[in-house]
Amino acid sequence: MSTDKITCLLNWHATPYHLPLFLAEKLNYFTEEGVKVAILEPNNPSDVTEIIGSGKVDLGCKAMIHTIAGKARGFPIKSIGTLLDEPFTGVVYLASKSGITTDFQSLRGKRIGYVGEFGKIQIDELTRYYGMTPEDYTAVRVGMNVTGAIIRGEIDAGIGLENVQMVELEEWSVQQGRSRDDVRMLRIDELADLGCCCFCSILFIGNEDFIAQNPQKVAAFMKAVKRGADYMFAQPAAAYELFVEMKPHMTSEVNRKIYQRSFRYMSRDLKNVQRDWDKVTKYSKRLEIVDDSFVQNMTNEFLTWPMEPESAPGFIHPTVDTGVLAKCPCSSHVAVPVAIEA
Q1: Where is the SsuA/THI5-like domain (predicted)?
Q2: Tens digits of per-residue pLDDT, 85-141?
Q3: Side-chain half-sphere CA neighbours of 119 within 13 A
Q4: 66 annotated active-site
Q5: Considering all CA atoms of the chain, what is the largest pairwise distance in Å, rounded to the nearest integer?
Q6: CA 191 – CA 50 distance, rounded (Å)
Q7: How far apart are the C-alpha atoms of 272 and 277, rounded to whole Å?
Q8: Which residues pair with 81 in a beta bridge?
């Protein structure tokens, strides 16, 4: 790179679960650790693994399954830590409008929206798992507009996150005079018997050449982010207000609720969880994204603090009151943003 700054490309535009990264910048943790960092937001999230793999950007964020798939496609990328652990991911729908129920077979004849090709691969595999075929539903690539496409009636359901798209749809439903409970999800991990939603864990990834040539910078970057995460866990409401200073649109009620919902998924020690990587590697083989020769592209070598024990299988962190909603200046006004890719 021609700049002396570390470039870090987000998996989509800034969203509440990116807070530790922005807090590291806001509180000068990057500077104190001896690195300069430029946080970038992509025009097209589907390009992130390729851009980082090409060396045009040093580091970034991406979902675990995309990180594995990018490596399988020949992009030299590696995970150096975890930002968001196991957010619930699945087929999101409005019960009152879609005709979809808790029975997967109710997806027959429906229009199912997906972000990128791996969403389509997942749904196709699930239809086979349940004795259906891809011809039994209509796949609609909606990109980042899953929430908007459901609201506009362009699709009956779409793949989304419990802590993002479901929040957006719940707030919209309330505006329409309906219950938040009208928004439902068929969780992919439960449908596919995976035992975790770790395939959509959001990771810190990097270009392998950059990592190999700049280990001290990478370690400093991760230490600064860890300090940001520590501040967030210690003072969740104060941390969010600092985020709002950097990104004023984050003051909206829906973004505050996304932060509230995302908080329990935020990684406390930033480690790549070996158990989750094993499960997602196995799932990726099942989806035929990788073959038996695949070597996991992750490391925890740049995390220089004690690691917490792995949680018990199936453990779900309880919801924490972050205090951010009490500080919301927007009362009942809700602006539903564009949906966010993993």
Answers
A1: 16-239
A2: 999 999 999 999 999 999 999 999 999 998 877 788 888 999 898 999 989 999 999
A3: 27
A4: yes
A5: 56
A6: 30
A7: 8
A8: 204
Token pair for 231? 């501040």
Strands (E), the chain: 6-9, 37-40, 59-63, 77-84, 89-94, 111-114, 138-141, 157-161, 183-187, 202-207
Scored b (16 or more CB within 10 A) or e, 280-299 reads bbebbeebebbeeeeebbbe
Q: Is 195 exposed, middle or buried (0-12, 13-18, 19+ CB in 10 A)?
A: middle
Q: In the 8-state DSSP scheme, what is residue 56?
A: S
How confident is the model over 209-225, as pLDDT tens digits? 999 999 999 999 999 99
Total residue count of the chain as it appears in this document: 342
* Catalytic pick among 66, 249, 317, 333: 66
Are 160 and 339 in contact by the 8 Å Cβ rule? The answer is yes
CA R_g for the chain: 19
CA distance 79 to 63: 10
What's the token pair of residue 6?
């570390």
What sign does the dihedral 70-74-77-82 (CA atoms) show? positive
